[in-house]
Amino acid sequence: MIYQKMANRILVGLYPKGYQLSSVEKIHEASGVGYTSIRKAMRMLQEAGYIRLEERRRPTVIFDENDPGCIELRRRVFLSHYESHLDCYRALPCLIPVLTLLGAEKSTPQLLEALDLLCSQSPSRFTRRTELLTLVYTWQALVIQQSDNEIAMDLFLQIRGFDDLRFIAMPAEPLMPGEAETALSYLRHWTDLLRRGALDDLYTLVLLFCRQASCALERSFQSLRSDPGLQQVQQVGFRWYVRQKLVPLYRTLARDLLRMAYREGLCPGECFPSESVLMERYGVAAVTVRGALSLLNELGVAQTVNGVGTIFTGRYSTACESQDYIAECRESTDILAFCGRSFAIAAAPLLSKEKIGVLIEACEKYRSREGIELWLMHELAALVPSHALQNVFDRLESRCIFAIYTNGTPAEERRQKAARNYARVRECLLHLQAGCTDRFIREFDSICRSLSLCARTNGSPDAF
Predict the structure, then answer these.
(1) Is 117 exposed, middle or buried (0-12, 13-18, 19+ CB in 10 A)?
(2) Helix (H) or strand (E) holding 48
(3) CA-CA distance, 268 to 259, in Å (whole number)?
(4) How far apart are CA 325 and CA 406, in angstroms?
């Protein structure tokens, strides 16, 4: 992760020639990555021609954007992200409207003033299509930032980060006459919708923009398919590192165990798999498994008993010291709660009546246990041809489940809510089977919005 992050920043000019990178100690403090991994990343950067390493001095960038060899290196890196760039853009319609809506719901006069200023620029300032895309991204970033959701902003920046390199590596496309005026007019209209509180209309227009952007990228990349260099590079997949940090392995395992308990309907009093089974299943050391189980004990959702094993309790301890991480999980849940509509819109046209019938039958296992809304979201997301979307959903889902289990809601209350959601989701699918797509989308969106409340005691963000 450190290597990719540093290399990308050097390639797009954020770290120009002569720039001194942070010390290994500073990078460790900021990222949580181990010293050995950071030093290995620095050696790889030096071998690739990005930096120079010297004793007792901070790493220095030697990449020269005007050097023919460096230009060729930049192009190779760009081509290595060809598939992941397309894959990420296929996920845009499911994610960017959601993130925009999160911020739009907290609009302020100050935000509207900033957007008005952005849209008041002269069309003559724009000569290339990349400049208009940057303008739109700036508008979206201002709105998403208003959500006060750091995870949402982090996801937005990482998804659109591919474009920074594309804008440099690909030939600039000149604007058609009147194209800048039209783009500014669209953004003024978006701002007006925000001012009037017409958020459903704003959502729809941002969704249409994302679809058009995805199609435009597909067209612009057609010429690259015959590029000999594309066959000579290894493709790099997209992985979303939340806040650009690696999560400790024991914490990832703890989330996976809770997800397993949630998906499989583990009842209070039942045991998690033994340490030896978990070590074999996940390929991790005993210390990692014990760290994960210790965290679950700390949260109160598990209790380790000598001679018995680790018992699932389903409860939560208010003495937990992981409040920062729980806050991150709640931010993830807020994003996921808005994704129901996007997933339903994207997947509904791809569902045959036979497949809908299979989903209705599969609902039965959730008649008396939690998780039906997340299960259906997972099924819908899997229909969208984007590995990036599945990657993002998996990270949001695991944090959402973590937040639900640490919200302090009594188990009986959760069971009652699960029964209500089972009936509502089944009815949604019956509407879809009957051809009432709009009703399916609307009602599933309503069900998913309740996830945000599930992650908070009595719906309060300050429950702790």
Answers:
(1) exposed
(2) none
(3) 15
(4) 11
Which residues, in sequence order, are bridge partners of residue 298?
none
pLDDT digits (tens, 9 = 90+) for 276-328: 999 999 898 999 999 999 988 887 888 999 888 999 887 765 555 556 667 78
Task: Name the DSSP class of 175.
Answer: P
Cα–Cα nearest to 70, from 169, 161, 199: 169
- Rounded to whole angstroms, the Cα distance separating 39 from 46 reads 11
Question: Rounded to whole angstroms, how far apart are CA atoms 190 and 231?
Answer: 41
Enumerate residue ranges in the chain where pLDDT < 50. Answer: 457-464
With the CA atoms of 32, 33, 38 and 41 taken in that order, what torsion angle do they form, in degrees rounded to the nearest 10? Answer: -130
Instruction: Enter the DSSP assignment of 21.
Output: P
Q: Give the pair of three-digit tokens for residue 35.
A: 């010293």
Of the candidates 378, 273, 397, the residue with the CA atom closest to the CA atom of residue 329: 397
> What angle is formed at CA 116 by the lines to CA 115 and CA 120, rounded to 5 degrees?
120
**SS3 category, 421:** helix
d(CA 431, CA 340) in angstroms, rounded, equals 16
Count of other CB atoms within 10 angstroms of residue 455? 28
